[in-house]
Amino acid sequence: MNVHDSEKIAGIFSENGYEESQELRDSNIIVLNTCTIRAKAEQKFSSELGRLKIIKKKNPDLKIAVAGCIAQQKGKSLFKRFPYIDFVFGPNNIDSVHGWINNGSTKGNKRSRRTHTEDNHEYHTKLLPVKREGEVRAWVSIMYGCNNFCAYCVVPYTRGRERSRPGQDIIDEARSLADGGFKEVTLLGQNVNSYGKLSHDNIDFPDLLRKLHEDKKLERIRFVTSHPRDFSDKLIGTMKELPKVCDHMHLPLQSGSDRILKLMNRGYTYNEYKGKIDRLRHALPDVAVTTDIIVGFPGETDEDYQETVSAISEIAFDGIYAFKYSERPDTKALELPDHVDEQVKSMRLQQVLDMQEKITYQKNLKLEGTIVEILVEGPSESDPEKMTGRTGTNKIVHFHGDKNDIAQLIRVRIDEAKLHSLYGEKL
Ligand code: SAH
Ligand code: SF4
């Protein structure tokens, strides 16, 4: 989501005649688009700002803007701590960059500090220019904000209330992307399964998929993130019916313990989650399932943690993103008793990651000798002789090919499986 927000920020600068510089020290403007989902992201921001301070000393005309969730959370107070910042704007105020450029504040050494973190009620209806990274796959926002208030999560406080973009705007954006040569769209929202619930459009997420599927030039449709509570049988049926909707489901479980899920305010039990995965796999036997796991949530006992371990083993995900619980300001989890020792968290995290590596590798090995269809994205980063693409199940495949393969759907025989990617030959 942040990567796509950065594309929107770059889009506004581009539209106003700015070009991307190759070196930080050659820049007139530097925008830091920040994340505050875990404490680590915030630490990165502070150290990055330290570097920019040195650059600004040498070039006093340089303007520094802070965007994203730290900007939203800290607002004006950032100017006090980092007096060399010029502009602060939150994730729902990206359109305010227009005004910053147009009032001349981005040029010369004029000091005029501005902050935009107000509730921008109509943000979800605004059409912003986007400077896209890549030419094959594109992100498309379908909703902003989140109403779920999971006990550990800062997103509802930084990205605000859930709002769905009008269906027609999304369909138009996807069409213009497909006309421009893009083959794949990934629909973005914190909880895509509740798309449309709070709007008057009367179209829900499966209906939106169906409409996007009608576009003749678009080859693939993906989406993140689904919330297990709102993940419906209707969506499973729609995924089965629509071939361009990729066989990949990212469904964050967070914990295998019902007690912890309740404390997290997730709104489902492990059995309910497992039942949904079973129905999904029954309908789409080749579907890849990935998840997010938090270890060391306040009160997580050894027994609770073991339930997460059992869940990972029982479900056998294709991949997981696992995190140590990180205390975030404003969140309910801060007030919970029995915070888990940092060392215990680290141990649990390492165990979970080690365990998943084995599962992922075994799953990849099963693909050796099979033929898969991939969408080619470009040259492989690790080996310039090779090209890289992804399967519908989101597995990375490297193969011998050339530039003419880019943006094509091709068939590849898998010869070798590694932990993070597959190697094969084009058929
Ligand atoms: N809206 C998405 C997730 C957004 S955040 C969803 O609900 O699935 C991405 C992931 O970061 C979450 O799934 C969670 O696993 C992790 N995360 C969020 N807050 C966290 C925190 N305080 N500590 C550790 N991990 C966290
Ligand atoms: Fe955070 Fe929960 Fe919303 Fe995801 S659904 S963004 S984890 S509050």
Q: How far is the N terminus from the C terminus? A: 35 Å
Cofactors and ligands? S-adenosyl-L-homocysteine, iron/sulfur cluster
Question: From the alpha-carbon coordinates, what is the Rg to the nearest angstrom?
Answer: 22 Å
Largest sheet: 5 strands, mixed, barrel
Tell me, what's the shape? globular
CATH architecture descriptor of the domain at 2-116: 3-Layer(aba) Sandwich
Q: What fraction strand?
A: 15-25%
Helical proportion, percent range = 25-40%
> Strand arrangement, largest sheet?
13-14-15-17-16
CATH hierarchy class name of the domain at 2-116: Alpha Beta
String of helices and strands: HEHEHHEHEEEHEHEHEHEHHEHEHEEEEE
Mean pLDDT, nearest integer? Answer: 96
Class by helix and strand content? Answer: alpha/beta
User: CATH H-level name of the domain at 2-116... which superfamily?
Assistant: Methylthiotransferase, N-terminal domain
**CATH fold field value of the domain at 2-116:** Rossmann fold
Which residue ranges are poorly predicted, with pLDDT under 50 across at least 5 consecutive positions?
Answer: none
* Tally of contiguous helical segments: 13
**Record field, number of beta strands:** 17
